[in-house]
UniProtKB/TrEMBL annotation:
It comes from Nocardia mangyaensis. GO terms for biological process: response to stress. Residues 4-139 form the HTH marR-type domain. Gene3D superfamilies: Winged helix-like DNA-binding domain superfamily/Winged helix DNA-binding domain. It comes from the Bacteria. PROSITE patterns: HTH_MARR_2. This is MarR family transcriptional regulator. InterPro entries: HTH_MarR-typ, MarR/SlyA-like, WH-like_DNA-bd_sf, WH_DNA-bd_sf. GO terms for molecular function: DNA-binding transcription factor activity. SUPFAM superfamilies: Winged helix' DNA-binding domain.
Length: 169
């Protein structure tokens, strides 16, 4: 392996570890309120405005099916509701209910305390720089994925058979 491969591996392993750490912290914040961290993520995605399931999935970087399953559970629990989508008849909007808003409000004090602790540990400037770096890394990876998907579509057109680029094993 070369230095660039080592860096890619180190970045991926660090992000995987961060994901686990964020899930652990998120579970600690959300479970006392009676919701899972996955439920909290979906509710947080629609906190500002209702979104279709596909939009939530894109923003979170997970599959539409995963979000659909969670949205259905949230609707069943009364934390969210489906609303008509003026932009698309079949793709309803997922919207937070008053109970969903109350759950988020119950999490907010502990969430704010954890954010303060992390900012105190890293320092505000380093915290902001870390977020900016992670955002740039995500954008760069998304651009590479889009480029690969475009090349795959062109290859499919050339040979007339599907070519897989995501989740390659």
């Amino acid at each position: 392996m070369n230095e660039e491969q080592d860096l890619l591996d180190a970045a991926a392993l660090t992000v995987f570890r961060l994901n686990g750490q964020f899930l652990t912290i998120g579970d600690g914040l959300s479970s006392p309120v009676g919701i899972s961290v996955a439920w909290w993520q979906v509710i947080a995605a629609i906190q500002e405005q209702p979104q279709p399931v596909a939009g939530i999935a894109r923003a979170m970087g997970i599959t539409r099916q995963s979000v659909q399953r969670i949205a259905d559970l949230l609707v069943d629990k009364g934390l969210c509701e489906y609303r008509p989508n003026p932009a698309h008849k079949r793709a309803k909007l997922v919207a937070m209910t008053a109970d969903g808003d109350a759950a988020i409000r119950r999490i907010n004090p502990q969430h704010a305390a954890m954010a303060r602790r992390l900012a105190d540990t890293l320092g505000p400037t380093e915290f902001a720089a870390t977020v900016a770096t992670l955002t740039r890394l995500s954008a760069a990876l998304e651009a590479l994925i889009a480029e690969d998907e475009l090349q795959a579509r062109r290859a499919e057109e050339a040979v007339g058979q599907p070519v897989t680029t995501r989740n390659v094993q």
